[in-house]
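Bench notes, bay 3.
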Amino acid sequence: MTDAGPHPSSQAILSIVVVLFNMAREAPRTLLSLSPAYQGIKSDGYEVIVVENGSPVPLSRTDVEGIAPNFRYHYIPDAPKSPAFAINYGASKSSAPFLGIMIDGARIATPGVVRYALKALRAYDMPVVSTLGAHLGPDLQSRSLLKGYNEAVEDELLNSIGWPSDGYRLFEIASLADSWNCGWFGGGAESNGLFMCRKTFDALGGYDERFDLPGGGFVNLDFYRRACELPDSDLVILLGEATFHQVHSGTATSVPPEKLPAVLAQYDEQYFKIRKKHYSRPVKQADYLGQAAPQALEWIRRSAEARIALPAAAPGEQENG
């Protein structure tokens, strides 16, 4: 394995692990969105640990560590097809008391994710801090791709809002991911910007490496559910913040709609084999922390309306099954 040098900042209290696989186009945007300049905070409070999960054409150490002094790069040759090992490996390279996990390195964050995650991590004894997921483009990318959406169209969309000058304008060119189909107030099935105490990560045993399907199958949903189910954990959803998926050859996001049920059935079959039950979304009442950027207000309104229309239950409960 290719390891980085000494720890760049002994003052870092948060380590964000980002997993990459064949993301030469997408990863630079993701990493820029996690940089101190974009997030508007100092670099000595957190670090970004980038784990290249066996990409045939990887980024270079210079590409990554040149972004900011708090970035570190690791390359795993002959890596497993699931990102579970890469996440655990990245977590092992840090001793910070808080961990952030971005299992999919093709997701652009809004400019308040790190700042508000740090606030939430400090405010609770056992926080599970969750970030809403969205797709760039007019619809779920599995459907958008059938209507001509591609990398070139996405590049033009990002150019049209002048990204990265105002990261909250991403809400203008995106749609909700299926795992967050009711928005912030409906609860999510997973998070691609997830933060917690290291002691919580360790108590869960990290990501379960038995989820060994390409892309990990339900490994991210499994970890999120287990974290939410911890008796003393507090779920905190970052209101007004999100991560936005860029189109790429993802194992689920690029699957044509007619083939997706078979893929999800395979994932659930493995989940059942490991957990002895079928997957269902976690049921957890959330607290909210964040801001209401003007560009996010319409999404907040739609999420509130969707929540009002649901049965009277804890957010997420009506989506189980």
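Next record in the batch:
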Amino acid sequence: MSAATTLPPERRLARPRISIVTLSIVAFLALSVASWSYVLFGTGDTLVELFSQESWSRARTFIGELAGVGSQVRPAFLQWEKWRHAIGLAYETLAMSVLAMGFAGIGVLLTFLLAARNVAMGELAASRSLAWRSLFFVTRSLYIFTRGIPELFWAMLIIFVLSPGILPGAVALGLHNFGILGRLSAEVVENADPRPARALRAAGAGTFQMLAYGVLPQALPQFLTYLLYRWEVVIRTTIVVGFVGAGGLGRDFRLAMSWFHYTDVALLLMCYLALVVGVDLLSAWLRKLAK
């Protein structure tokens, strides 16, 4: 009798399993090939056009216009009045980002414990009632809804309710980042060390005391780190929501492009890049203090 016939039936019929990693790599390669095939052959665009002399000529012309080459008027970046106006817009953009993160941060601080599975229905739960568990699903659904809608769409909707300015942009950015920060902060609570909370509960502490002294001290430093990191992302997004009238550098950038004031565009880009670099450096310093 051969060795194959001595094996149990379930082992003789078993097929080689494909791991999720292998399946993901194959799917990624297939989608990449399909996407590039559509871009190169389905839309009529080719890489030859990208590297053509005409494309590079147009790029050189555009860069020259940003630098004011051939312009009959004085470039905007050589006029103090233009600089003062651009710096004021940069201040509005910074204020919009800080206000947005304030909205998102306060909202998350009030809700992220309810969205943690171990607090809602695990060993740290204050109650086993259906109402307490329902708060978990409601809060998680709110996070999914707010982060699922992009900031630009939020701004386009809110601009019809609030007057144009930095407030609708801040609300739009705050809503989107509320969902992102809330999900990240809830996962921090779920991965926190439960032993301090267990010790407090064994010592007779109430639910509020257990969360305040056993969970929050572990979660808050990571929450501040996420908040500062999202601030770096938001300062880059403010110029996008400004396109729909939310104020700051984005609104004037769109207007300058529409009016072909290319030296004004260059000035606004200088202020925008300086603002992004400054926020990145300040955020990195603050993150070190939070750890």
